[in-house]
Design a protein that fits this description.
The complex is a heterodimer of chains A (about 160) and B (about 475). By secondary structure, chain A is α+β, with helices and mostly antiparallel strands. Chain A contains four helices and nine strands. In chain A, strands 3-2-6-7-8-5-4 form a seven-stranded antiparallel beta sheet. The radius of gyration of chain A is 15 Å and the shape is globular. Chain A starts with a strand and ends with a strand. In chain B, about 30% of the residues lie in helices and about 30% in strands. Chain B starts with a strand and ends with a strand. The chains are: A alpha+beta (about 160), B alpha+beta (about 475).
Amino acid sequence: MPPIQLGDATVAFIEREVAIDLGACDAQQRPSTCRGFACRVAPDRQRLTLYVRRPEALPLLQDVVAHDQLAVVFCLPETEVSIQVKGRHVGIAAASAEEVAHVREYCARFVDGIARLGYERAFAEAYMAIDPAQMVALSFTVEAVFDQTPGPQAGRHKEESAA
Amino acid sequence: MKEAAVCLTPLRNCFEGAVPSVLATCSPDGVPNVTYLSQVQYVDERHVALTFQFFNKTRRNILANPWAMLKVVDPFSGHGWRLRVRYLRTETSGALFESMKAKLAGIASHTGMAEVFRLLGADVYEVLQVEALPSPAPAPVPALADHLPRLRRACALLDASRDLDELLDNTLSALERECGIEHQMILKLDECGERLFTVASRGYASSGVGSEIPMGHGVIGVAARERTPIRISHMTSEYAYGKAVRESAAAQGLHHQLETAIPMPGLAECRSQMAVPILAGQALYGVLYVESPLDLRFSYDDEDLLQVLAQQFGWMARSLAAEAVCEPGADAPVPPPSTVSASAAAAASAPEKPIAPEVVAGAGMVAEAPAAVRPLQVRYFRADHSVFLDEDYLIKGLAGAILWRLMQTLQHKGRDQFSNRELRLDPQLALPEVADNLEARLVLLQRRLAERSDCVRMRKTGRGRFALEVSRPLRLVLVE
């Protein structure tokens, strides 16, 4: 599938305090998952970079290297509005210090967000705990965006521009 | 990476729905799909079930390729687990389906989404591997497993009950003492199996004894209809429960006229609630309901405890009702009329006769009462058996019919001593030979009188016996 360019609303949504989870699969079509702790949209709006914890993400990292297919779901806890983004051309690198700072800021906003919803702060902080030395930046090119909000419309393609 | 043997029981907190779970699937052509789930049902230590509500990408994937990965999070510690699962089958009936449907229906009934979130099936997955996700957060502290000792103490407290009245109080005390549950009610299924009425409650400004919920409505009604526990653990928008039930029921015409309705007790801001059916074998007695203003107040372990306790309650209530029927001496003649209570006698102009001047029932023909003591007007509406004391609504249904019988007996025969047995055999009340409803209705009546009247009360005088004490002359008015 050709790459697409994310629209303003999608970019704004992804950059909010959203929960992030990734999915991939191996050659036998068995899925792997890991959590994302921040996301960054590239200036061309065609690539996304997700930040994951290496020990947790190991099976998924192996799968994307071998299979080059990635699905990422974003959900705003406050509204349960969700989107799923799928793509390929995965690149993997250790997160830089500047990126770790971005992750920390993202996590702090997420913690504040779910604390406002009534979750215990201790839970939220444990849930978003990271070790800077273990953060990996996983980039990919977006090829499809889907509405994933719970309900009958979940799974519909969202309109984004072709790149 | 640390791997654990497949046993989901220690992970049950992860299935509360407080933190959305994640399911990753894969299409046969190797495209992954990942989605959030609001409900993961613990089935047993090796199986979970997911709701099938829409025919979406996940659904198509698992039908074509059963392998999936499920991520769940402990809502207390923030730690996560990955479950490698394999889709086995979809159930569209049976206990699991009904349990999940009831939970979904209970949630939906509060959010007005009943038509949107309809369960089409319970997708059952076998869990092949459980893997704790490595995290830099401090390791979770294992919770102290003390539910069994608490259940044992609670059961002992129930065992000490000699009648239904004590059983109700002891059950509420057991939950309060052993589980720290502050807001609770016990509801009994009515004679027609159409409504549940509150017989006892604790932790509310007003007891709400006598208030009703239609079968199948809300968390309590659905738990009763489906005979399965329903527990909702994390709510932000689902509150004003009793009010919502009442308004909704009234709108549907399921409730009696509002002027005769007793407000349902309930927390203004309820964030955790659990309704557990009270069963004795296959027979449904009623529902035990608990709630809390705290999120995640009730766990799977609490559900286990309450379910066992509710079963003990169900069997004991049934046993006590059966004992009351077979009780030696229950057929003995009722004491003579001269045992009219002192208070009633004092209020009456002629102690050996009816405690008030003869009153003509119906047609507004009412005899004069002594000027000194204002008579208590008791109005009985035959259509719904509702009873009003002066202008205040007291009770309706079977309890209303019973009170009217008692009042008539007191009025016309001067007898104030009664036995449960005679009520059970009373052709006018037409009760089934063995029924636990009579005991429940008498408890309800006794509690409503204690709450609503300062001149009429029911006093227990022995096992299966009681006195009706009236401190004002009666004026009985039958309204056809």
